[in-house]
Design goal:
421 residues, alpha/beta, Aspartate Aminotransferase, domain 1, Aspartate Aminotransferase, domain 2, 2 domains, 6-stranded mixed β-sheet, globular, binds pyridoxal-5'-phosphate
Length: 421
């Protein structure tokens, strides 16, 4: 098979494909594997009940059924959902949006692919612009999304200790450089993999930097504010024409409906609609139509804050407690301050094996996690040992399983120290 540069780029082994492959094989190899590797949301009963009721209403209404499955939406996305979202966000935050400020995509992952390649890569004047990730580690799903090579440039964080076994990454503004070669800045907030939440002040400073070169600040709110609000610290939503705010219905409990939401300046929305038309003809209506009543009534915000957030917050606390208890008086571990999302990011300084070997040893013990070394897209290879000392652990699934997984991780880490330390 002879492939173009595009064909080669997207069929070559990438971090995310080998990771997904490995997770898939591990899952197929035994039923009793404890799955703490992926980013699948948990099943929140109240959300499921509400969505089931909305769907049941639609199935009784022939007009709604026709719109649900029988017509193509415009490439910008389902109109009523967009109109309701414009009203809600203006009412809540006074952003002054119109329908020209919102486009839908088939999952927010697709939005990142479009945005990164719109603002990064090769330009007519011969220049090559990168996407700046100001706070590594960052979401692995960005890593291979560039059509042009070397699309990302990432910056090592500052590390501060926030408790006896807790640390937090912060943006190292002395090291962040926004130049004429920067096409856009991007942060996930909360961050996958760490559960970090870039503070309001950090976000404001990043926006000032973006403005200085007139490039967009892309904020990935897949777990964030205003919904699904998997946030355990205060964080204000922020939008103006310098910002591209990307949201998603996935972590509210609709990952299969593939609905991403982009809020941006009208020129960007128009461009995204054009790309949507070429790539997909239309975006899927399903997620937008299911969620529209929740947006119209504002329930999407109250359910996020009062149901979805507490659901994950309680899971996070139980997971941290299970690990802390299992480690006992062993002091050689840290967890990133769990401020949001559905992950714990553990750091084992000076562990005698790499995070990849730890991942393999844990897999052999029936626990799937993700080795942290995958989460540094755009950071040049260097001797920063830290990137091979961390693992990401998802706590969104069944509590008993998560607690057992935590005990096995603690036990394995202690075994490694006893054998090799
Ligand atoms: N951004 C982050 C940080 C994620 O973790 C994910 C998925 O896990 C996505 C974006 C993409 O989500 P979706 O395409 O389901 O909207």
């Amino acid at each position: 098979m002879k492939l173009s540069a595009f064909g080669r780029k997207f069929t070559a082994d990438s971090g995310i494909t080998s990771l997904m492959d490995d997770l898939g094989h591990a899952l197929a190899s035994g039923d009793d594997m404890i799955m703490m590797g992926g980013g699948n949301p948990g099943q929140v009963p109240e959300m499921q009940d509400r969505l089931t009721a909305i769907l049941a209403d639609m199935t009784r209404d022939p007009e709604a059924m026709k719109r649900l499955v029988g017509i193509y939406d415009p490439p910008q996305g389902e109109k009523r959902f967009i109109a309701s979202l414009v009203d809600l966000l203006n009412r809540e935050y006074g952003w002054g949006l119109t329908a020209d400020n919102i486009a839908l995509t088939n999952g927010s992952q697709a939005a990142f692919f479009m945005l990164f390649n719109m603002f990064g890569g090769d330009f007519d004047d011969g220049s090559h612009r990168h996407i700046l990730l100001p706070l590594a580690p960052e979401y692995i799903g960005y890593a291979d999304a560039g059509i042009a090579p070397e699309l990302f440039r990432a910056v090592e964080p500052e590390i501060s200790f926030t408790g006896p076994h807790e640390f937090k990454y912060r943006v190292d503004f002395d090291a962040v450089e926004v130049t004429a070669e920067t096409g856009a800045i991007c942060v996930s907030r909360p961050t996958n993999p760490t559960g970090n939440v870039v503070t309001d002040e950090e976000l404001e400073r990043l926006e000032v930097l973006a403005r200085s070169q007139d490039v967009p600040l892309i904020v990935d709110g897949a777990y964030g504010t205003p919904f699904p609000s998997l946030l355990y610290v205060e964080a204000q939503p922020r939008w103006n024409e310098q910002v591209i705010l990307c949201l998603s219905l996935s972590k509210l409990g609709l990952p299969a409906a593939r609905t991403g939401i982009v809020i941006a300046a009208p020129g960007i929305i128009k461009a995204l609609s054009g790309i949507n038309a070429i790539m997909n003809l239309a975006t899927g209506s399903f997620g937008a139509m299911l969620a529209e009543p929740l947006v119209r009534s504002g329930e999407i915000l109250s359910l996020s804050r009062e149901v979805v957030c507490p659901f994950y917050h309680a899971k996070m606390e139980r997971a941290v407690r299970a690990f802390t208890d299992a480690m006992g008086d062993d002091c050689r571990w840290y967890v990133h301050k769990p401020e949001g999302a559905m992950f714990l990011w553990f750091w084992f300084p000076d562990l005698p094996v790499s995070s990849l070997e730890l991942y393999q040893r844990l897999k052999a013990r029936g626990v799937l996690v993700v080795s942290g070394h995958y989460f540094f897209p755009g950071l040049p290879e260097n001797d920063w040992r830290h990137r091979h000392e961390c693992i990401r652990v998802t706590y969104s699934q069944d509590d008993e399983q998560v607690a057992e997984g935590m005990r096995r991780i603690a036990d394995e880490v202690k075994t490694i120290w006893a054998e090799l330390g």
